[in-house]
Design goal:
- It contains 30 helices and 40 strands.
- The longest helix has 22 residues, at about 5-25.
- It has about 950 residues and is of the alpha+beta class.
- The strands form 16 sheets. Strands 5, 6, 7 and 8 form a four-stranded antiparallel beta sheet that branches. Strands 11-12-15 form a three-stranded antiparallel beta sheet. Strands 16-17-18 form a three-stranded antiparallel beta sheet.
- Helix content is about 35%, strand content about 15%.
Length: about 950
């Protein structure tokens, strides 16, 4: 195409202008600045009382302890490095309040804000338009709600943008030297893309990777978010208007409710306290919003007057599944609904919200009820000075121990509002106005086929819990696989699938704990060489969270994995070991330890035994009935696992040793079992049930051959006097060359031709090392296994902690082997099929290697690569994928138990965790001495293993080996 010269000249000027504008934004590099006090912000007209100063200091400590120095961001929940723009806005508001309340000095304020804004200015944006919904607070990477890095991102939230724009306004007003910097950041964002037809629109990514714009906001939060936009010159008149709404009578009070219903918009129209509190302290309650807020407070008082239950409802994180709930006055047609973002009800977890109680108290300082509910939470602080807990559960009356930036940030904002003489933080003339009467049938602003339309973003909740969790195996598959050898005829491996049983509600069994024991000890008799460091204590508390989140308070059992209501004896052994470690580390109180231990011991007595002999391979943790590894009921059981029995026997022995007050109860349990078929001619055997072609079910008992697991279980049986010389570590092992090292793959043996599970992983060897120590024979297996992984890292740069791990998607169980099926570094599923790109770095194994080999540089690198892989509400993740670095979503008792045991090992001078029993007069040994029990008990009342020591350390060996005997505990 040919243009006239004048047109060409004009186009050149336009092009140059656009290029210049683009370069201005591209190379905008803000210069760090120091704040100068703004008189209006520093004008403290109503100083905090001494009590209020205590409240403020406690809330600020949350941000001190959750600060990420590499980015300047803070964690959204305690210890979890994730955050949304809403969380970032919370932090900016908290930081400003902390400065004027003299919780931090000017130098610290400037240092924090400069780092924060530097990182914020350099964030990768979703589609180069607006910040992603969530970022890793430690690295500033775009992530999903599992904190997994994502190149594309998952969209933006318009409500979150409104929140941070309000915070930006406070910062530029109170610290005007940051104004230009903030203007530059906002100028880089394409804020207009989140506005359409006068409303706020977020963005979400569909399964086909396309971006869909979705209207955001319902009455309360919609108006608040729009006001943040308005502060920066962006108009959203429909969003800032109150319509469409209707009035619903609740407890005699007419409550305003958004008319857009959940069924047609897929968005919750909940009524909560926080949106009105935020409006009040930041913008000042004006017009109808002031009336609405008063009604929302009054209806909560009316509920208290009627029921006697203190009420302060709003959305909050909770310290157990499902981890985030909307406690509402009204939602989706129901009064006082407590729901997830997906509208699933959880009324049993309704709570009194700390932040809501603080908000109502200071917004309505003369209201007697607001004072009453405030008094209930004002001292709800973490005992380790980590901030305020989120609230108190109505039903259990126990604290909701979730620690969040939202709760603690809002408390600081509220106290700053009070110190300013109840003067709003933002000078604004904007107000939400109603243009007509409440509407009963308002048209939907969001078509029903648009997903993820929200009243308030749930990203803060989503980061706390993984999604798409399958109904999968109830135990680590190292035990499951051995239960069903592939070379046995008619054997099957159950694939985790959804069944009709998944949707029916089982009848939960209530188990009463055993009676209180005589003279329960305040702690174990295990002596610690040193206390945990603050970082180690944080890890211990995070690992213990798994056992809090997956505890069945009626049965006393723990799920083997968080996405499956089932347990094996191996998993329950993990739990008992975790209980001991948590008590020894002072992570739990003596009372909690005693209550949980007595409950678990009682449950063990109630488990139906397979063939009246031994516990079955799996149980439903709610009903205590036998299930297979897919969770399907098997009324007669499906055999037993000698490996699982070994795990439990090791844990029960240590309970007797370190907490002897439970000895009688433990002996009663193990004397109920029959060992006639599990210990045969010095080897361990397990039972499987197979279905014949004619429909008959037959039991088959075969020797155990799982490398590492057999040796571990045999040592445990030896503690109880069983002669297992042929299963204990020793003899000759077949090896394969991996990275130039001879790695064991199988024991040379003539008693079986089984080829099942011929792969080598780290799990049993590190567990053996932690509990029994590394005797010379075990060390000869352990060292090449570890060294091969270190050598692979040296050669390829790939962190390697090969283990069996459980994940939330097919194949659900991944064996990241050192060698398997004749190949090095192959990932296998339970069916023996390769899992492409499925190799994981195991969090538990990394912790264990670092505990066992603290001076080894490679074990130190493993530890550094996995320490942040935890969710503070549900425990440590299984690990991360070698190829992508993404977190492997999955939470198990095995991983979190091993982490607790590793931490305990660190502080006991690296002594074997299993300590010897020095007295042999308990009921078990008395019964063994009597003989002829008909239960296959040992032939003599003598342990077949002993704790010994030499220059390399202490370890357990078979009693026949000549070494120095250690008789006491350290």
């Amino acid at each position: 195409m040919i243009y006239k010269p004048r047109q060409q000249k004009l186009l050149r000027w336009v092009a140059l202008f656009l290029i210049g504008t683009f370069l201005q934004f591209l190379f905008y590099i803000p210069t760090p600045v120091l704040s100068q006090n703004s008189n209006s912000c520093s004008n403290i007209t109503t100083p905090l009382t001494s009590e209020e100063q205590t409240y403020a200091r406690a809330a600020w400590q949350y941000f001190v302890k959750n600060y990420q120095p590499a980015t300047g961001f803070t964690n959204s929940t305690g210890g979890y490095p994730s955050g949304t723009l809403w969380d970032m806005g919370n932090y900016l508001m908290a930081l400003n309040a902390a400065r004027w309340l003299n919780l931090t000095d000017q130098a610290d304020f400037d240092s924090r804000l400069n780092k924060f804004l530097t990182t914020l200015n350099s964030l990768k944006l979703f589609e180069d338009a607006l910040p992603n919904k969530v970022y890793n607070a430690a690295t500033a990477q775009m992530v999903d709600y599992g904190n997994n890095p994502l190149e594309q991102g998952i969209g933006w939230s318009a409500l979150d943008v409104g929140r941070i724009l309000a915070a930006f306004d406070v910062i530029r007003t109170c610290h005007p030297q940051y104004n230009e910097w903030l203007k530059g950041i906002v100028a880089k964002w394409q804020v207009a893309r989140s506005l359409k037809d006068g409303q706020l629109f977020g963005a979400t990514v569909l399964p086909d990777k396309k971006t869909l714009l979705v209207q955001e906001g319902r009455l309360g939060y919609e108006e608040y978010g729009a006001r943040g936009y308005q502060l920066w010159g962006f108009s959203a008149p429909k969003a800032i208007a109150l319509e469409p709404f209707k009035l619903v009578e609740i407890n005699g009070v007419q409550i305003p409710v958004d008319s857009r219903d959940f069924q047609s918009t897929n968005a919750n129209n909940y009524v909560v306290s926080e949106s009105y509190i935020l409006d009040g302290i930041e913008f000042g309650l004006q017009g109808e919003l002031a009336d609405f807020a008063a009604r929302v407070l009054d209806v909560q008082k009316r509920r208290f007057d009627t029921t006697g239950q203190l009420t302060a409802v709003t959305e909050d994180n909770i310290d157990q599944a499902p981890y985030f709930l909307y406690n509402t006055v009204y939602a989706n047609g129901a009064n006082w609904a407590t729901i997830t973002d997906a509208n699933q009800p959880y009324p049993q977890f309704r709570s009194i919200s700390t932040k809501a109680a603080f908000g109502w108290r200071y917004l309505f300082p003369d209201n007697a009820y607001a004072q009453k509910v405030f008094d209930a939470v004002k001292d709800l602080r973490s005992p380790d000075d980590s901030g305020y807990y989120a609230g108190i559960y109505e039903e259990s009356k126990q604290p909701n121990k979730a620690l969040t930036g939202n709760t603690n940030g809002l408390i600081l904002e509220i106290l700053y509002y009070k110190a300013r003489g109840n003067h709003p933080l933002i000078a604004s003339t904007s107000a939400s106005v109603s243009t007509g009467k409440p509407s009963e049938n308002a048209s939907s602003a969001t078509p029903s086929n648009q997903p993820n339309s929200t009243g308030k973003p749930s990203e803060n909740a989503s980061s706390a819990t993984p999604s798409n969790q399958p109904n999968s195996t109830g135990k680590p598959s190292e035990n499951a696989s051995s239960a069903t050898p592939a070379n046995q005829p008619n054997s099957t491996v159950t694939t985790p699938i959804a069944t009709s049983a998944d949707t029916s509600k089982p009848i939960e069994v209530t188990v009463a704990p055993i009676p209180p024991v005589d003279s329960p000890q305040s702690s174990s008799n295990l002596k610690l060489a040193r206390p945990l460091t603050p970082v180690e204590r944080r890890y211990a508390e995070a690992a213990w969270r798994y056992f809090q989140a997956n505890y069945h308070s009626k049965s006393g059992l723990i799920d083997d994995r968080s996405d499956f209501k089932g347990a094996t004896l191996w998993g329950l052994g993990d739990y008992l070991a975790a209980l001991h470690a948590a008590r020894s580390l002072d992570t739990i109180t003596p009372k909690e330890f005693d209550q949980r231990t007595r409950h678990l011991l009682a449950a063990l007595t109630k488990l139906p035994l397979f063939a009246g002999e031994l516990p079955s391979r799996g149980y439903d943790t709610r009903t205590l009935q036998p299930v297979d590894y897919g969770g399907n009921p098997v009324s007669e059981g499906n055999g037993w696992s000698a490996l699982d029995l070994g795990r439990m026997l090791a844990a029960l022995y240590n309970l007797k040793s370190c907490h002897p007050e439970y000895t009688a109860a433990v002996d009663k349990i193990v004397l109920d079992w029959s060992y006639l078929r599990v210990v045969r001619e010095g080897i361990l055997s397990s039972a499987t049930v197979t279905k014949e072609q004619d429909g008959r079910y037959l039991t088959r008992v075969n020797p155990e051959t799982r490398l590492g697991y057999e040796e571990y279980a045999a040592r445990a049986f030896q503690l109880w006097g069983f002669n297992l010389a042929r299963s204990a570590v020793g003899g000759e092992y077949q090896t394969a060359s991996v990275e130039g090292l001879k790695v064991p793959i199988q024991r040379h043996r003539t008693d079986t031709n089984s080829k099942v599970n011929q792969y080598t992983v780290s799990n049993p060897f590190v567990l053996y090392g932690l509990e029994f120590g590394l005797d010379p024979k075990m060390r000869s297996l352990f060292e090449p296994i570890f060294q091969a992984q270190a050598e692979r890292y040296r050669r390829t740069g790939t962190l390697t902690a090969s283990a069996t791990t459980l994940i939330d998607r097919k194949p659900y169980t991944v064996h990241s082997t050192i060698t398997g099926q004749g190949k090095s570094w192959v990932a296998l599923g339970d069916d023996g099929q390769p899992v492409p790109k499925g190799r994981l770095v195991s969090t538990a194994v990394a912790f264990a290697y670092n505990a066992l080999l603290p001076d080894n540089k490679y074990s130190q690198q493993l530890q550094e690569g996995t320490t942040d892989l935890y969710n503070p509400l549900v425990g440590f993740y299984e690990g991360f994928y070698e190829t992508t670095g993404k977190t492997a979503v999955g939470f198990t008792s095995s991983t979190n138990s091993m982490i607790l045991q590793s931490l305990l090992y660190n502080v006991t001078n690296r002594q074997p965790l299993i300590r010897p029993i020095t007295t042999m007069n308990s009921l078990w040994w008395q019964t063994v001495t009597k003989g002829d029990s008909g239960r296959g008990l040992p032939n003599s009342a003598t342990q077949q293993t002993k704790l010994t020591s030499d220059s390399s350390g202490s370890y357990w060996v078979s009693d026949s080996e000549k070494t120095h005997l250690v008789t006491g505990t350290k």
